[in-house]
Amino acid sequence: MVHSYVRLDAYRTSLVPQTYIAQVTRGLEAARRAGLKVVLRFAYNFGFEADAPLDWVLRHIEQFQPVLRDYKDVILVLQAGFIGAWGEWHASTNGLTSLTNKQTILNALLAAMPTDRMVQLRYPGDLLALYPTPVDRNTAYNGSNQARVGHHNDCFLSGPDDTGTYNPISQKSAMQSYLDRMTEFTGVGGETCQVNPSQHRTDCPTALAEMRRFHWSYLNLTFYRPAIDRWRTEGCFDEIARRLGYRFRLVRAVVPEQVSRGERLQMSLEIANEGFATPFNPRPVQLVLRARGTQTVYTVALNSDPRRWTAGQTTTITVDAPLPANLPAGDYDLLLHLPDAVSGLSSRPEYAIRLANQNTWEASTGYNNLQTILKVQ
């Protein structure tokens, strides 16, 4: 994963030239070739400088809409951006931090993005103001605007209020309770920004507890480096690296020894999620039968959503699928495939999910070998 700013400093009150839009497009094409996903943010500065008037912000969003749609496959998530210093939704020079203007810009971003991609807001207070009731299991992933809004904290663990993240601090408890509920179903990430040893906010126990509570999927590895180094020194860095996002482990597969052609394959898989979060973009689940001799594959689509393989729990996937009557008899390896949902990436192994088990991953195919043989007769 990479974090990328699109800087619009030179175009605060003018249209973005097509040559610059083409440059952004080339960057996303390079990410696609390299097998990367991008956390994207548009900004008019990299510090406390001017942003743009509202009408120009909306025009710029409209200009980039085709790019956002054409390259959704490599855009992991869009940070709301555009407003204020660093595009972090504070210190606007054009009055963009009013709730009305924030909502206008957020709605424009959600309309510009494909409906299966999320936008992240910087401040929990904005989430509470815009969507007073947090998204839950019943409303998650339903395509509504609220279901597509996550959170990024760019001063994680930096002090009692995470340097203004929880503003006002008197409402921190309410904001955290809100995040506790909605982050199970939305994308969360960000970065640290300082170390406060006396407050113990950046120590390992606190970091692990809050990443688990708020379902963190990604974290800037290069900033703030002293905070990252503290986790290395205290010994939790490797655990954080393993558990950011999802970490799926096959607990067991219950598979019949044999099945007849034309009959139903009935089996189950138990998948433990030992990460802090789940995938927050759609992803199919496929069972692959691969003939041991010819290596011919037969794919069974499973009715399961990895976005609902809850962190800290084990999910049972039940398979009850008919086998074609003309399926050749013989021995088949069983494999689990979790490919990217976008057709252009679905066949690329580097975009498939790898299970945490040993000796299951096939780097050449993107399959997870269940180390089980099914006899078809």
TrEMBL record:
Ranges for the DUF4832 domain? 148-357
Q: Which domain of life is it from?
A: Bacteria
Q: Which InterPro entries match?
A: DUF4832, DUF4874
Domain DUF4874: residue ranges? 2-124
- Its transmembrane ranges are none
Name one matching Pfam family: DUF4832
Protein name per its UniProtKB record: DUF4832 domain-containing protein
